[in-house]
Write a structure and sequence with these properties.
Elements: E1 2-4, H1 10-22, E2 26-30, H2 36-47, E3 51-54, E4 60-63, E5 75-76, H3 81-94, E6 98-101, H4 104-107, H5 112-120, E7 124-127, E8 136-139, E9 149-151, H6 158-171, E10 175-179, H7 186-194, E11 198-203, E12 206-211, E13 224-226, H8 231-243, E14 248-254, H9 261-269, E15 272-281, E16 284-292, E17 300-301, H10 313-321, E18 326-329, H11 342-353, E19 356-360, E20 363-367, E21 374-377, H12 383-393, E22 399-402, H13 415-422
Parallel strand pairs: 1-14, 2-13, 5-6, 9-10, 17-18, 21-22
Antiparallel strand pairs: 2-4, 3-4, 6-8, 7-8, 10-12, 11-12, 14-16, 15-16, 18-20, 19-20
Helix pairs in contact: 1-2, 1-7, 2-3, 3-6, 5-6, 8-12, 10-12
Length: about 425
Amino acid sequence: MLELRVPGDKSIAHRHLIGSGLARGRSMLRGLPPSADVMATLRALRELGLEAIGGAPGPVEVKGPASWNDAPAPIHCANSGTTARLLAGLLAGLGRSAELDGDESLRRRPMDRVVYPLQAMGARLRYVGSRGRLPILVEPRASGSLRSLRYRPRVSSAQVKSALLLAAVTSRTELEIRDRGEPRDHTERLLKHMGAPLSFSTGPEGQWMHFDPSGWDGKLRPLDTLVPGDVSSAAFLIAGAVLGGHSVRIRNVGLNPTRTGFLEILNAMGASVGSVATGEAAGEPVGDVEALPGTLGPFRFDGTVVPRLIDEIPILAVLAARAEGTSEIRGAGELRHKESDRLALLAANLGALGVECEELEDGLRIRGTRAVLRGGVRTGGDHRLAMAFGVLSRLPGCRVGIDAPECVAVSFPGFWEALDRVLPKES
């Protein structure tokens, strides 16, 4: 059985960097992924006063400032929506001033979903250019603290929930969120681990979270932890192994239940996928994932599970293209607002390769085929699409050209070398 490791989870890494900046004392972070997104967050925090010694993937010693800075120049969040939205919440809670901007792709992504609830808390945010899009200027409050908020989001978003929670914790303002979905809960787990008075749960009606600062001294404990491997990055290698007829074990990955929907779908398709918990890292369950190949059948899922596998839908579409039967993805309209319109590009690219794929308003309908697939793929600079079609390109007989293979560095530098171990290029 092939054994592999993947870079640290970038969703967790963003939050560990921010949490370390808010802690009283020095934190030690190991296993930060050297991905472009995480480096954008680290650069931004340094501009606001964070001290960080070392570099990813080696140990990084982090100390937050006694007093956070205003940013005299715009903070460039590159292609990272997590950086932009979480920093909006952090700055709002701290009462500091900064302009948040990003690259052309990030400027197209919606920001109202985080701006409106922060404004409802009393934060001062305004658009510098196009309404609803970056750049955004966060300004200090004229007086007083933020207002308490009870919030029911229309669209489940871990980034929005995290932004509101960071605003609440840094301003010590009560916050309650009731979400009908199950978005990632990394921020809640981390801040509770660090000592914030936070309660949260998941049940049949979705997620509930409550932050009550009454009686809390505002102190957060520093971190000394290893960022677990990114289960989203692991998904592409697992899929490659299963499609290639190989067994694989991925060591030390995060097994947060809000992130393991892909493993459940792959099991339901006919592969044999299991996980073994080995411990915990700053509130996050960690363990090994093992996958054995099998004859793949179709799948169907809707919006109830989408938040738990949103980043894995591109590779699930590739799996569907090689499975027996017709698979259907519904409730995934949020994919139209990622680094690209992933639904449109998945449909167009699969069709161009010879796969029967129908683009739906909120998903895809894909009929699997065993035919040889050949053609070029347009990624729109989207790292998840490049990795998904990269897996397809390595299957026997398939000839798939990727227009921007370098964009995988956004989340998984070294992806192509890792894929070589799972599915070597045909000579």
